[in-house]
Specification:
Elements (H helix, E strand, L loop, with lengths): L1 H23 L4 E2 L4 H8 L6 E2 L4 H4 L29 E5 L5 H18 L5 E4 L7 E4 L15 E12 L2 E12 L6 H14 L26 H10 L3 E2 L6
Parallel strand pairs: 1-6, 3-4, 3-5, 5-7
Antiparallel strand pairs: 2-8, 6-7
Helix pairs in contact: 4-5
Length: 243
């Protein structure tokens, strides 16, 4: 009987170890809009141009000279996925489960405030008007991807009227897996919102929010994250310009 209990205990410990290993290896995903859905606009895209640097980023100075990972940011054909109309409107979906609602909302809204130090963000009540929608839902299934994912950021292109001009614009949907708990809710939101604000790539350093994999002790937004974001907003893009 004692040997049987030892075997059961060992199996449980092995299973727990495997679960922790799989959890630590979950990679954050990002996908761009499928080519078929943007081809209608592509022939009329405006040429890439540089927008004025937002004042918050313009005033940002890194006294630590930490560098950046801008070389790892790979923009799609439309150019860098930066915003030119401020404040950026963010919608946060409230969980249906009242027991989890306040804790989850607090964690995600705190992350919005963290990034709001560097770019003007405004939380709105309507998903219809939002530039970025943060959703407490499992990331959409992808063909050939079998493992669960902590979060995902996707975007769609559209045109909007800016006075008498028709402007090429984009909207983001950020999916946060509802299975995330504790500090990992904020970690996933912080990472994915970084993508949605324009960092379309991953860092190779665990001390950066945009590190390519989830870590046991999630870091705050680093100087390297902000340095990278600032460089992104100094680049040309087709977004925000007249068609």
């Amino acid at each position: 009987m004692r040997l049987w209990k030892v075997r059961i205990k060992n199996r449980l410990l092995a299973g727990l170890g495997l679960a922790l290993c799989c959890f630590s290896l979950i990679i954050f995903s990002q996908v761009n809009t499928p080519a078929a859905s943007v081809s209608i606009l592509e022939n009329s895209w405006p040429p890439p141009q540089v927008h004025p640097l937002p004042p918050m980023l313009e005033n940002w100075q890194d006294s630590t000279n930490s560098g950046d990972y801008f070389d790892r940011v790979k923009p799609p054909n439309v150019g860098h996925l930066l915003w030119s109309k401020f404040p950026i409107q963010v919608y946060v979906e409230r969980p249906a489960d009242a027991n989890k609602s306040e804790e989850w909302m607090t964690a995600v809204l705190d992350v919005v405030r963290e990034w709001g130090v560097y770019l003007p963000l405004e939380v709105v009540d309507s998903s219809e008007v939002a530039d970025i929608r943060i959703l407490r839902r499992a990331p959409p299934l992808r063909q050939g991807v079998l493992r669960s994912r902590s979060g995902e950021s996707t975007y769609k292109l559209y045109t909007r009227q800016d006075g008498d001009k028709t402007v090429l614009s984009h909207r983001f949907s950020v999916y946060l897996n509802p299975n995330q708990v504790g500090k990992y809710v904020a970690a996933t939101a912080r990472h994915e919102l970084g993508h949605a604000l324009g960092i379309w790539g991953h860092s190779s350093m665990e001390t950066d929010v945009l590190y390519f994999s989830q870590v046991r002790n999630p870091p705050p937004i680093s100087a390297r994250d902000v340095n990278t974001l600032k460089r992104v907003y100094q680049q040309p893009t087709r977004l925000g310009w007249e068609l």
